[in-house]
Amino acid sequence: MVGPIVAGAWLYAAGQRAGSTQASHEGATRGPNRMVKTDDQWRRELTPEQYRVLRRKGTETPFSGRFWNTREAGTYLCAGCGQELFASATKFDAGCGWPSFWEAVDPAKVEFHPDDSHGMHRIEVLCSRCGGHLGHVFDDGPEPTGKRYCINSAGLEFRKADR
Ligand SMILES: [Zn+2]
């Protein structure tokens, strides 16, 4: 007897999603520090490029972002919620035009989702706090992890290390 109720709830939810106040909590929603905002809020608070990358899973043009070639010591934060994501000590030049890291500052700060779009099988990397799309992770990185986190500059902010 749950069929009609579930279908009704689904149709209701689908209708809500089609509206302009779509809640942007795609991806996992667990954790006490989870930041959930509506699509309208994100659109207001982020720059158009940040919004396109973080909330619409866009990809910036290679060699165009702020951080693909930076070497300063510091920490890279999520541009959506400010969570620390990557340390400059794990940044390396992958030659691909996007900032690349071989490890996140803490495995709990990132989440992974399979991404089969564009005819490829890739692993999407998201911020665990706001669910923002950061980029993808590949298995062709350097030691010690062998991972290459290929991240959009638009999804990041940089905080210089204290001296
Ligand atoms: Zn975030």
Describe this structure in words.
- It is a single chain.
- With 163 residues, the protein is α+β, with helices and mostly antiparallel strands.
- It has one domain: Peptide methionine sulfoxide reductase (Metal Binding Protein, Guanine Nucleotide Exchange Factor, Chain A), CATH 2.170.150.20.
- The protein is built from three helices and nine strands.
- The strands form two sheets. A six-stranded antiparallel β-sheet has the order 3-4-8-7-6-5, with no helix packed on it. It has a three-stranded antiparallel β-sheet with strand order 2-1-9, with no helix packed on it.
- The chain starts with a helix and ends with a strand.
- Residues 1-28 have low confidence and may be disordered.
- The structure holds zinc ion.
- The site of zinc ion has 8 residues, from loops.
Short note summarizing the structure:
This protein is 18% helix and 25% strand.
Second rung of CATH, namely the architecture: Beta Complex
How many discrete domains? 1
Q: Helical amount among residues, as a percent range?
A: 10-25%
Question: Which CATH first-tier class would you pick?
Answer: Mainly Beta
Briefly note the CATH topology name: Metal Binding Protein, Guanine Nucleotide Exchange Factor, Chain A
Number of helices: 3
Assembly form of the protein: single chain
Strand order, biggest sheet? 3-4-8-7-6-5
The helix/strand class is: alpha+beta
Question: Main sheet?
Answer: 6 strands, antiparallel
Number of strands: 9
Within CATH, the superfamily carries the name Peptide methionine sulfoxide reductase
Which stretches are low in confidence, meaning pLDDT under 50 for 5 or more residues running? 1-28
The ligands found in this model are:
zinc ion
Helix-strand pattern, N to C? HHHEEEEEEEEE
Query: Strand content of the residues, in percent?
Result: 15-25%
Envelope shape:
globular
- How far apart are the first and last residues' alpha carbons, in Å? 65 Å
Instruction: Provide the gyration radius in Å.
Output: 17 Å
